[in-house]
């Protein structure tokens, strides 16, 4: 048994407000979170939640991971952009070229994402969230394929992508050059250990695949506590140094 991708976690200065934005854009519902965050649950095959965790740190650098939202037509793309702006998002310039057809936007706290043009073959069979696009190495793609038990659906020129056997978004890594990591990521994966498995053994398995245990300065009461007991959170990092959490057993 392998860990399950339970959620994509966002560090947020205003968790309730940021959740409200993404609920409006994605048309997802707020749900009770057993770990104390503000959480949204998908109404499609996405397969993981969004969790919004309080943070006093302000966003200062580009995220390593962002959503690629899909479009069925140019009108559909335009409507998505309008909805983003209506809920408090904005256009941003990250150096995209004038002839590029995707639209680059940011949520109210500056987290970047794209609305992809219709006809994108790579995302053709994906839902509204087509991909979690990541700045990362081939080693990170291989690690997450093994960690989650998701097959590689792209592995070429050091670019990799994985996808759950049940569908949902692809997770992609763009290969070199990978920008240096600066500080703690604002987005991270939350993994639920196997329901009928040994959590300690699962943490050891992730280490054997290339993960490391990390200390992000979390306090004892923080969701992210890096103990190894059954009631603790284990904070780890993948081969590119991206933090992720293994949730307490439930």
From TrEMBL:
Alphabetical list of Pfam families matching this protein: Glyoxalase_6 (PF18029)
> Gene3D superfamilies, from UniProt?
2,3-Dihydroxybiphenyl 1,2-Dioxygenase, domain 1
Q: Which InterPro entries match?
A: Glyas_Bleomycin-R_OHBP_Dase, Glyoxalase_6, VOC_core
Q: Where is this region: Disordered?
A: 215-241
Q: Where is the VOC domain?
A: 125-249
The protein's name: VOC family protein
């Amino acid at each position: 048994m392998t860990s399950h991708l339970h959620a994509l976690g966002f560090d947020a200065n205003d968790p309730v407000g940021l959740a409200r934005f993404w609920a409006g854009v994605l048309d997802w519902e707020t749900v009770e979170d057993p770990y104390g965050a503000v959480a949204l649950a998908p109404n499609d095959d996405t397969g993981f939640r969004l969790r919004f965790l309080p943070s006093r740190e302000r966003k200062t650098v580009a995220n390593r991971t962002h959503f690629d939202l899909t479009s069925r037509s140019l009108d559909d793309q335009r409507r998505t952009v309008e909805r983003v702006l209506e809920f408090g998002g904005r256009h941003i310039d990250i150096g995209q070229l004038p002839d590029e057809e995707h639209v680059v936007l940011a949520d109210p706290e500056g987290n970047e994402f794209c609305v992809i043009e219709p006809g994108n073959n790579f995302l053709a069979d994906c839902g509204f969230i087509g991909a979690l696009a990541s700045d990362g190495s081939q080693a990170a793609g291989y690690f997450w394929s093994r960690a989650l038990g998701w097959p590689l659906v792209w592995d070429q020129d050091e670019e990799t992508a994985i996808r759950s056997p049940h569908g949902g978004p692809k997770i992609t890594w763009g290969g070199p050059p990978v920008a240096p990591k600066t500080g703690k990521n604002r987005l991270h994966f939350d993994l639920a250990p196997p329901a009928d498995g040994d959590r300690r053994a699962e943490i050891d398995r992730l280490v054997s695949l290339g993960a490391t245990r990390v200390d992000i300065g979390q306090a004892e009461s923080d969701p992210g506590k890096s103990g190894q007991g059954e009631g603790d959170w284990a904070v780890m990092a993948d081969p590119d140094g991206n933090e992720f959490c293994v949730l307490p057993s439930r």
